[in-house]
Amino acid sequence: MAGPTDLVGSTDLAGLDARIADCRACPRLVAWREEVAGTKRAAFADQTYWGRPVPGFGPADASLLVVGLAPAAHGGNRTGRMFTGDRSGDVLYAALHEVGLASRGTSVSADDGLELYGVRVTSPVHCAPPANKPTPEERDTCRPWLVRELGLLRPTLRAVVVLGAFGWQAALPAFAAAGWTVPRPRPVFTHGARVALVRGTEPDRTDSVSVPVSGSASVPVSGPASVPVPGPVSVPVSGSASVPDPGPASVELFGCFHVSQRNTFTGRLTPAMLREVLSAAAGSAGLTTRPTPG
C-alpha cells in the first residue's frame, strides 16, 4: 500500500507529486474521498472526479509557499488541483492574481492554463476529509509528504504563508523535521504573525565530497605515487565541487486566516487583508508584486 513512508522515486517534485497521488495510508480519508467521487454533487454530475490525494501545485523553484489545510470534497477532490473549483480557491487565486503572482484570478480545472509566478500551493493533508476536519492522526500520517516537499523546495524557498491555525500547527513540526530551527516555545498562530525560521547546521561547503569519475582515473594513495584504476571511481574533491545548494539561511512564516467561506463571508478575512499578507510574504521571498487597492 502506497503511503508517505514510501518516498522512493520522490527525488524531485514531479516524482513526489506522483507518489502523493497514489497514497492510501488513511482508511477513513480513502473511503470518504472515493465515496464523494462516486456520488458527486448534482452540479458536477457529468464530471469525472479526481477522487485521490491532491499534490501541490506550482513551480519547482518557488520562493513562496502557501500552505492550506486539506482539499475540499467537491473542489480539489473533484479537480485534482489545490484550491481549485471551490469558493476558497476563488478567493485565494483572485488575491494572488491581484498582487501579480498568478496569470489569472480564477482556478476552475487542472487544465485551465493557470500559472503561478514563484509560488507553490500545498497542504499538510492531501485528501479531502469529512466535514473538512482531518484528525490529528491523519495530519501526522501525512506529514512526511510535506517534510519531503519542503526539502525539495529548500534551495529556493524564502517565505511561507500558512492559512489557518490547523495549517500552522501542522507546518511547524514539518519545518523542524525538514531542517529549520523552530523557536521554543513554538510561535502561536495569529493573523499577521511573522516568524523567521533559521536553517539548521549544514556541512561546510568546502568539505571534501565524492564525485563520480568515468573511464580510467588516478586515485591518490599514501605517498606521492598514484595508481591507475579502471572504470568508475569516486574521487575526493575540495572547493567548488557539485554540492546540493542548502538554500537561504532562513525562511519567514506568515500567518493568515484561512480563506474558508466562514472567514470570508463574515468579514473576518477581507480581500485587502489577504492581499496585504501575500504582498508582504512576496517581498520577503524576493518576488515582484504590483500595487493593489487598500
Structural class: alpha/beta
Low-confidence stretches: 202-243
> Nearest-angstrom radius of gyration?
22 Å
How many beta strands in the DSSP annotation?
10
Q: Tell the overall outline.
A: globular
Strand line-up of the largest beta sheet? 2-1-3-10-5-4
Distance between the termini: 49 Å
H/E series: HHEHHEHEHEEEEEEEHH
Biggest sheet, open or closed, and with what strands and sense?
Answer: 6 strands, mixed
The overall average pLDDT, rounded, is 86
- What is the count of DSSP helices, taking H or I runs of 4+ residues? 8
| Proportion of residues in extended strands | 15-25%
Report on this structure.
It is built from eight helices and ten strands. It is α/β, with parallel strands linked by helices and 294 residues long. The strands form three sheets. A six-stranded mixed sheet has the order 2-1-3-10-5-4, with helices on both faces. Strands 6-9 form a two-stranded antiparallel ribbon. It has a two-stranded antiparallel sheet with strand order 7-8. Helix 4 (87-98) crosses helix 8 (271-285) and helix 5 (136-153) packs across helix 6.
Task: Describe this protein with a few key phrases.
294 residues, alpha/beta, two-stranded antiparallel sheet, 16% strand, globular
